[in-house]
Every structure is written in structure tokens, then in C-alpha cells.
Design goal:
- With 253 residues, this protein is α/β, with parallel strands linked by helices.
- 26% of the residues lie in helices and 18% in strands.
- It is built from seven helices and ten strands.
- The strands form two sheets. It has a six-stranded mixed β-sheet with strand order 4-5-6-7-9-8, covered by helices on one side. A four-stranded mixed β-sheet has the order 3-2-1-10, with helices on one face.
- Strand 1 (2-6), helix 1 (14-21) and strand 2 form a beta-alpha-beta unit.
- The longest helix is centred in the middle third of the chain and has 15 residues, at 80-94.
- It binds fe (ii) ion (FE2) (2 copies).
- One fe (ii) ion is lined by residues 8, 10, 38, 65, 215, 217.
């Protein structure tokens, strides 16, 4: 049994959907897949992708990304919290798991999240260009801090499972220093919308050995304070320098 990971598959792009469709129907039958969010804003495309992956892997574990909670293309009267509940129903219908999985050797813990500006305040340019600010709709009482708190409050367990190895995963970044030094000043304006320190607090409570995250699209493998952080985002078709565009095996029994 192996554990593979990929995130940010963005199947709205034909090249990405074609890659999913071309994955072997035989090679992964004993294996688990961690799918760390950003499949599509379209529920139809999300469902198609989850079915395709559930047919190929023994188990698929998944958390939605920000794109899944975009509401403009589906129904303008819906909030992103309503969309989240629709995503959960699709996961259940497709046999895709959103809760922790444990055995003696291995635990895998999905962690929901959002961004709450704990990595910095958004500048005017980010406020104008960031799609979520137009495409996600929240109840009036909720700012980004409340949204992030809402999602992380659903996460469990928040203590170390008894398994030999513990892998947690989220779509959003748990700490900003997983980003490499070479990121340009221009791209650093995105940092406020990359994640939340609340996730890092939970990862430290769980005492994960490995934490997988998505969202930045910048592939990464770095150990910080005893925890290995891995990003294996597939990314947009043009992102050939920062994304290796393959399944990554992160554990083997
Ligand atoms: Fe993404
Ligand atoms: Fe994302």
C-alpha cells in the first residue's frame, strides 16, 4: 500500500482533465490518494473528477479548496457555506472521504481551513485582483477570520493518533515560511490569502510527521521543526516551472 498526493488539479483546463483521465485504472488499486483541494468551481466537473479517482484508488481522501466554494457559476443566491455542504454531498455520493482514517501503522487527517490574513494584510492590488473576493459569498457576519475559524473548528482529532506515522493535509498553508526564498516581491502580494496560523496550531497538536498542503501551486518538500511539509500541486497548464505535474508517493507500507 502506498500513499500518493496531488492538489490543485483544476480540471477546468482540458490538459489537466486529460491527465486525470489518463491515470492507470490498474496501478493504484491498493493505494490511497490525498487530494488537497482545488479540483474545480463546477460541481459537475468536481463530481466527474472524484468518480474517476475513486475508481482508480482504494481510498481517496479530500478537502475542498477555495475554487470549490466559488458560487457565481452555479447560483448567485447561494453562499459559499451552502456550496461547501453541496461538495460534502458529492464526496459522499462518490465514496470520497473527508474524515480521518486510522490503522496501527498510519493515520491520515484532513484539515479544513481558509485564510485569515495571519500571514499579512492584503494590499489594494490584491483586493482588486483576487478572484475569491468576487466569487465567494459569505454570510454578512463573517469576515475572513470568522471563515477560517468556522472551518478549522470542524477538524478532528486534535491530538496525536496512536499510529506509527501521522500524515495531515490541508488545502491552505499552515505557515508562510514553507514558501521558498526565490518567490518574487511581485508574487508575495498573494501571501495574505495563502493560509492561516490556526492550521499550524492544529498540526502541532496532532504532532503530524508529514503535512501536505496545496493552494500556492509551488511544489515543495521542506522539514521545519521536525515536520515535513509537502506541496505537490499540479497547477495551471502554464505553471511548468513550479509544478512537476505528477502523482507523488509520500508513504509506502
Ligand atoms: Fe489552486
Ligand atoms: Fe487554492
Amino acid at each position: 500500500m502506498r500513499v500518493f498526493t496531488v492538489s490543485d488539479i483544476h480540471v477546468d483546463f482540458d490538459a489537466n482533465a486529460t491527465w486525470i483521465a489518463g491515470l492507470s485504472a490498474q496501478d493504484y488499486r491498493d493505494d490511497l490518494l490525498i487530494l488537497a483541494g482545488d479540483v474545480s468551481g463546477s460541481l459537475r466537473l468536481l463530481e466527474g473528477c472524484l468518480i474517476a479517482l475513486a475508481n482508480r484508488f482504494r481510498t481517496v481522501l479530500y478537502v475542498p479548496g477555495n475554487h470549490e466554494l466559488w458560487v457565481t457559476r452555479d447560483d448567485e443566491n447561494k453562499t459559499s457555506l451552502d456550496k461547501f455542504e453541496e461538495v460534502r454531498i458529492i464526496m459522499e455520493n462518490c465514496g470520497v472521504r473527508g474524515t480521518a482514517l486510522h490503522d496501527d501503522k498510519l493515520s491520515i487527517v484532513p484539515l479544513l481551513g481558509w485564510y485569515d490574513y495571519s500571514f499579512g494584510k492584503p494590499c489594494n492590488e490584491l483586493n482588486e485582483m483576487w478572484m475569491d473576493f468576487r466569487t465567494c459569498k459569505w454570510p454578512q457576519s463573517m469576515g475572513m477570520r470568522e471563515v477560517a475559524s468556522y472551518f478549522v473548528a470542524m477538524n478532528q482529532p486534535l491530538s496525536r493518533p496512536a499510529s506509527d506515522t501521522v500524515i495531515s493535509f490541508s488545502h491552505f498553508l499552515p505557515r508562510i515560511d514553507v514558501m521558498p526564498h526565490y518567490i518574487s516581491e511581485r508574487n508575495r502580494i498573494l501571501y495574505p490569502v495563502l493560509g492561516t496560523n490556526l492550521l499550524e496550531q492544529q498540526i502541532r497538536q496532532i504532532r503530524s510527521d508529514i503535512h501536505v498542503y496545496g493552494h500556492s501551486h509551488v511544489n515543495r518538500h521542506i522539514k521545519i521543526d521536525g515536520i515535513t511539509y509537502i506541496n505537490n500541486a499540479f497547477g495551471y497548464p502554464r505553471e511548468t516551472k513550479i509544478a512537476a505535474k505528477r502523482l507523488l508517493c509520500i508513504y509506502q507500507d
